[in-house]
Amino acid sequence: MDWVYVGIGLVILLLAGDSLVKGAVNLSLRLGVPALIVSLTIVAFGTSAPELLISIQAIMDDVPGLALGNVVGSNTANVLLVLGVPALLATMHTSECDTRNSYLQMIAATGLFIVLCFYGPFTWVTGVILLTALAAMLFYAACAANKHRKAAMTCDNEIEGADPTLGWPKIALFLVLGMIGLPLGASLLVDGSTSIALTFGISETVIGLTLVAIGTSLPELATTVMAALRRQADVALGNVIGSNMFNLLGIMGVASLVGNIPVDPQFLSFDLWVMLTASLILVPFVFFRVDINRIWGIALTALYLTYLAVVLI
Fold it and tell me: What's this model's pTM, rounded to 2 decimal places?
């Protein structure tokens, strides 16, 4: 049955990812805002749902370290794996996207998170700081969307998958199915994979460092794969940037309100810096308009596999 759960979870992830991308693109068309802004907010929040659920559950189960590890590991996987694997299937034309402001916000959120880790543990005060930063990011996105509408600069009609005739009920249905399906599919796949790993004698610690982080990044991966195949690089890159900001500010903010989260010394000496380095790898794609082609896909995926090997050893 574990293999069946893995198969069903994978299918649900792919279908839900396609549904969320389709809903997001058409929502941006109807609202008159760039698909990038929608992907930075609605899509990013939907694909970050598994991290939120697992982090809260970890606090309630008195294993707070899992919550921190899940977020840090997922952010690393979001850049290296979630952008690397889709690039193996189709080139993502990120040179056509302007994500500079959003990327700088993500780097600022990463810096704030690292500083707070050194002042750890995470408490309700930390949670308030992180959620305030998230509110500021959302306010900026709302202002940018409003400015875009007033300028009437929309060009999303040219985006593959956008249907001007698609009504609000269908758009809402696509979004809801995507947001429900992604965490459901991820849960089935993680549970099945974990049971299989335990059957082969792999320790729970190793499972937490690998399968949980990868599993909770699968919604982002599924969404980005479908966005790449639909030639919607703005949705793909926006999803990763937005998800990373939600993970650091929203998920850790909420989790810190639920309970205190200690910071393991290993995070301060290794994992946090790997996460930061992975984030900085995006510089060529954001500032120098470099497309993420298959060569970059191989490099990013290889870097992530190397990171896994170091963690496992």
Answer: 0.77
